[in-house]
C-alpha cells in the first residue's frame, strides 16, 4: 500500500536522525561546498538559512565562510500572522528557543521574504522535480505563497537535504511552492 505523508515523514525523520556524527559532518561539508560553487549562491547577497534540527544538514558554516553576505534565520509567526519572518544572524550564540526548541535571534533587522535573494529550505523529503515535504505546518508554503502568483518573483528556493531524503515522486498539493534546486552531499538537482 502507498505510504501516507505522515508515514513518509516519520520514516525520513528517523533516517536522517540516525546518521552518525561523522556522516553528518561529511554531508555538511559536501553540501556547503557544492552550494558555494553554485551560481544562485554566488550571486545572492541576502540569504535565508536555518538552524538545523532533527538530523537536518548543517549549513551554518557558510555564515563564517561568506562574511560579505547577509544571512537570516526564520522566526515563527506570532499568533495572527501566518508567515515566517527572517531575522539577520551573523553566526553568534542564540539564547532564545521557539516553541519547537529551535534557536531564533531576538533582535536584529528583519528582511521581508520577497527581498531575500535565496532561501535554503529545510525539508523532510524531496523529489527530483522540486517537490518538497516539510514538517507539516505549511510555514514555508504560506510565507512564499506569493511565488505561485508571480513565479519569477522573490527568492530562489533551494532545498537542502541528505541524499537519503530523495524519493521518486511526492504528491503535489495546490499550495506547494516548488524548489528551483535541491543540494545533497552527492548532487545538485536543477528542477523546473
Ligand atoms: N531547522 C528548521 N527550522 C525551521 C523549520 C524546519 O523545517 N527546519 N520549519 C519549517 O517549516 C519551521 C518550523 N516548523 C516546524 C514544524 C513542526 C515541528 C515539530 O517538531 N513538530 C513536532 C510536534 C509539534 C509540537 O511539538 O508541538 C513533531 O511532530 O515533531 C518543528 C518545526 C521554521 N524553522
Ligand atoms: N498558501 C497557503 N495558504 C493557506 N494554507 C496553507 C498554505 N500553504 C500551506 N497551507 C496549509 O499548511 C498545511 C501544511 O502543509 P504541508 O503539509 O504542505 O506543509 P509542509 O510544507 O510539509 O510544512 P513546512 O513548510 O512547515 O515545513 C496544509 O494543510 C495547508 O492547509
Can you describe this structure in just a few lines?
With 192 residues, the protein is α/β, with parallel strands linked by helices. It has helices at 5-17, 21-37, 39-43, 61-65, 139-143, 146-149; strands spanning 46-48, 70-75, 85-88, 110-111, 118-122, 125-126, 132-133, 156-160, 181-183, 188-190. The chain has one domain (5-190): NagB/RpiA/CoA transferase-like (Rossmann fold).
Tell me the fraction of residues in β-strands, as a range.
15-25%
Helices and strands, in order, run as HHHEHEEEEEEHHEEE
The radius of gyration computed from the alpha-carbon positions, rounded to a whole number of angstroms, is 16 Å
Strand order of the largest sheet: 4-3-2-1-5-8-9-10
CATH architecture: 3-Layer(aba) Sandwich
Secondary-structure-derived class: alpha/beta
Q: What ligands can be seen in this structure?
A: ligand FFO, adenosine-5'-triphosphate
- In terms of quaternary structure, the protein is single chain
CATH C-level name: Alpha Beta
How many domains in all?
A: 1
CATH topology: Rossmann fold
Please report the total strand number as a whole number: 10
- What's the CATH H-level homologous superfamily? NagB/RpiA/CoA transferase-like
Largest sheet entry = 8 strands, mixed
Helix tally equals 6
> N-to-C terminal Cα separation, in Å?
29 Å
What percent of residues adopt helix (DSSP H or I)? 25-40%
What is the averaged pLDDT score? Answer: 96
Low-confidence spans: none
Amino acid at each position: 500500500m502507498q505510504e501516507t505523508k505522515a508515514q513518509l515523514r516519520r520514516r525520513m525523520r528517523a533516517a536522517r536522525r540516525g546518521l552518525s556524527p561523522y556522516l553528518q559532518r561529511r554531508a555538511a561539508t559536501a553540501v556547503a561546498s557544492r552550494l558555494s560553487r553554485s551560481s544562485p549562491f554566488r550571486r545572492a547577497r541576502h540569504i535565508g538559512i536555518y538552524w538545523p534540527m532533527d538530523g537536518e544538514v548543517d549549513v551554518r558554516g557558510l555564515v563564517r565562510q561568506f562574511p560579505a553576505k547577509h544571512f537570516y534565520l526564520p522566526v515563527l509567526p506570532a499568533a495572527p500572522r501566518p508567515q515566517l519572518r527572517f531575522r539577520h544572524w551573523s553566526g553568534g550564540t542564540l539564547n532564545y528557543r521557539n516553541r519547537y526548541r529551535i534557536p531564533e535571534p531576538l533582535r536584529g533587522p528583519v528582511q521581508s521574504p520577497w527581498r531575500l535573494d535565496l532561501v535554503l529550505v529545510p525539508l523532510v523529503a524531496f523529489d527530483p522535480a522540486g517537490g518538497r515535504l516539510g514538517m507539516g505546518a505549511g510555514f514555508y508554503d504560506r510565507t512564499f505563497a506569493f511565488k505561485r502568483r508571480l513565479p519569477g518573483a522573490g527568492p530562489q528556493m533551494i532545498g537542502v537535504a541528505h541524499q537519503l531524503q530523495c524519493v521518486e515522486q511526492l504528491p503535489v498539493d495546490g499550495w506547494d511552492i516548488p524548489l528551483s534546486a535541491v543540494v545533497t552531499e552527492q548532487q545538485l538537482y536543477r528542477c523546473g
